[in-house]
Amino acid sequence: MSKTTFKQPDVPDFIQKIFLNQKNFLGTQQNEEAMLTKSVFRNIVSKLNFDLPTPQPAQESVFVQEESKKPDFLIVEKKSTRFQPQHNDSLYWCMFVHANGEALYQTKIHLKTNMTNLLMSEKKQMSDFFNKNDNKILKNTNQKITLTTAVELKSDLMTKPYMMNYSALISCCLYFKCPIYAVNEKTKTYILFQPNDYVSDNENIAEDPNAVVLYSEKGRISLETDAEEKKKMITTLIEGNKYFKLEQYDKPLLAISNYKTEDLQNIYSILFDECPKMKKPEYYDKIVERCSVHILEKLI
Predict the structure, then answer these.
(1) Beta strand pairing status for 180-184 and 212-217?
(2) Contact 187, 242 (CB under 8 A)
(3) Other C-beta atoms within 10 Å of 223: how many?
(4) What's phi and psi for 84, nearest 5 deg?
(5) How far apart are CA 241 and CA 211, in angstroms?
(6) Which of 116, 205, 259, 298 has the fewest CB atoms within 10 Å, i.e. is most exposed?
(7) Helical residues (DSSP H) of 160-255, grouped into ranges
(8) CB burial class (10 A; 0-12, 13-18, 19+) of residue 126?
(9) Edge-to-edge order in the sheet of strand 220-224
């Protein structure tokens, strides 16, 4: 079999000696010349027709801090001005804070006062106040109740563990001598409890410092503590175009005969933000159903 000859590629002689015939190259070169030194390497590269990069003097690194980008706007979480009791019977604790200040309430907690005992002691004072007066005193509010209901309200102060419904605000408005607005922001309704002989300290009712604004949410009551926020809310309630005032704590509307269709349409638009075309009884039923969510709410 004939021996196949291999033709070496057309490459520079010194590369052939290094890579293709290394033994001969080492044999014909001195040891230093056989080493791939810098000079040898540069000589190789110069014959390959491209330039080595010119060494650059070392430069001192300079750190440039990028200017921090500030947001176009800053969202600041608004701190709530409403007092939210930590304990059950949220309705009474809100009235307690209205009369005594939140600082006293928080101090009692810090001192590890038995809050249940304090609650019963405070409510006993209310009970004693009404027991010293004729039952008719409980009828002296804008809420119409019978003498039987008045007796029940007095009894509830010491027999019920909590003030569990809005009828308790009849007792509160008389005992604390103030108007009380009970607002439900979800149903867009409110109830006003006020002594019949109450006279505001201000000509502008919304600026009355004795007025109380309570909010209900899922049975929990909170108290507005900021004077400006309270003024805004009372003003809105009085204007009557965003919240509907319930006639009674146990009866949201008068009989249907007391309203024109246009009246019910206006009420409906406040409660539902719209007013589809319906018959008068349909408006009435929908309004009663909506308002009942507020007055039937169980408080804790």
Answers:
(1) parallel
(2) no
(3) 23
(4) -120, 110
(5) 21
(6) 298
(7) 168-175, 227-239
(8) buried
(9) 82-83, 220-224, 212-217, 180-184, 189-193, 244-245
- Cα–Cα distance between 180 and 173 in angstroms, integer? 6
Q: Round to whole Å and give the CA distance between 282 and 54.
A: 92
Q: What are phi and psi of 296, to 5 degrees?
A: -95, 5
**Encoding tokens for residue 208?**
């009355």
Say if CB 181 and CB 246 are below 8 A apart: no
Segment-wise mean pLDDT, segments of 10 residues, the chain, 300 residues: 50 53 50 58 61 58 56 64 96 98 96 95 95 93 95 93 95 98 98 96 92 96 97 97 95 95 97 96 97 95
Pull the structure tokens for residue 47.
Answer: 């014959």
248 by DSSP, 3-state: which? strand
The DSSP H or E segment spanning 109 is helix 102-110
As a whole number of angstroms, the distance between CA 286 and CA 190 comes to 17
Q: How far apart are CA 278 and CA 267, in angstroms?
A: 13
What is the rounded CA–CA span in Å between residue 213 and residue 222?
A: 9
Residue owning tokens 């101090």: 107
Phi, psi torsion values for 123, nearest 5 degrees: -70, -30
pTM above 0.85, yes or no: no
Domains of the chain plus CATH, in order, are 82-241 (3.90.70)
Task: Give yes or no for a contact between 16 and 8, defined as CB atoms under 8 angstroms apart.
Answer: yes
Question: d(Cα 262, Cα 249) in Å, to the nearest integer?
Answer: 24
User: Which of 143, 253, 238 shows the shortest CA–CA distance to 200?
Assistant: 238
As given in the structure block, the two tokens for residue 259 are 């309203």
Cα–Cα distance, 143 to 173 (Å, whole number): 11
